[in-house]
Specification:
The chain has 150 residues and is mainly alpha-helical.
Length: 150
């Protein structure tokens, strides 16, 4: 929301100035936000406003299609439906991939991954404390078998 406000109200699309200047802009944004003096409602909750605008455009496209007397369909409505369908397909694909990954992993493999994470943590602690012997031993244990054989 702050980035959107900075871009649209202040005319600074990609701020890369000093931090103190960014903080001054943020103070101004926070003051407007807290005193409810934003120039538009969308700056309070941009995602919500964007979803409402999307629903409004969709409703308008559906109404226009309904008003049109059998003229072969509405391109805007078809496009909205296609985008929704593609988004649903992508979401289903991601969920299915996550499920396959989760079920493809046995309990033994999960435990082994946790064990390796613990060893990496121990190795980091050994490095930070200067215990080179322990660090090297753990590093050899964590190396893949192909590299360890060399």
């Amino acid at each position: 929301t702050f980035e959107r406000w900075l871009s649209e109200i202040k005319g600074i699309p990609d701020f890369n100035g000093p931090k103190h200047e960014l903080m001054e802009y943020f103070k101004e944004f926070a003051e407007d936000y807290n005193t409810a003096t934003m120039p538009h409602v969308k700056y309070y909750d941009y995602e919500k406003w964007e979803m409402e605008e999307y629903a409004k455009r969709k409703r308008e496209a559906e109404e226009a299609a309904a008003a049109k007397d059998g003229g072969g369909g509405n391109v805007a409505l078809d496009e909205l439906r296609h985008r929704e369908e593609m988004a649903q397909r992508a979401k289903r694909r991601r969920v299915e991939e996550a499920r396959v990954t989760q079920f493809g992993m046995t309990a033994e493999k999960r435990e082994e991954m946790k064990h390796q994470a613990r060893l990496r943590h121990e190795m980091a602690v050994a490095y930070k404390t200067g215990d080179e012997e322990t660090r090297k031993r753990l590093q050899r244990r964590l190396e893949p078998e192909e590299i360890a054989k060399r």
